[in-house]
Fold this protein.
Amino acid sequence: MSNKLVKNDDEINHIFDSIKELVINSRNKVYQTVNTEMLNLYWNIGKWKYNKVMKGQVIYGDAVLEKLSQKLMVEFGKVFSKRNLERMRKFYVCFPIATTVSSQLSWSHYLELIKIDEEPKRNFYMKETINSK
């Protein structure tokens, strides 16, 4: 193997571009993994809340949910506000089958989609959003 120094800017640029591509690909994989896990978490919290609160297995009033939210926010941040817990419940209600949740979309996308009450419209916009990416 030769010990010659790389002095050519084209060679340096090629090495840089290769490393840059590796970094970007890895970041995208990390983002996708985090996004998928976050959606799974929010879906499962919504499922728990729907099954326990909405189906009458356990009665949780607003005061209990507010206290739960406060404890979760202290431990894990504002994402667990009472309002977001309600959004997670609606997320589950709108997408009750976990496999219908596409990890190609972010939580922000789903926050917009759950505002659409009619399932056919919601599904249409979900597909359009995925196809436009």
Remarks:
- Residues 9-131 form one domain.
- The chain has one domain: 9-131.
- The mean pLDDT is 89.
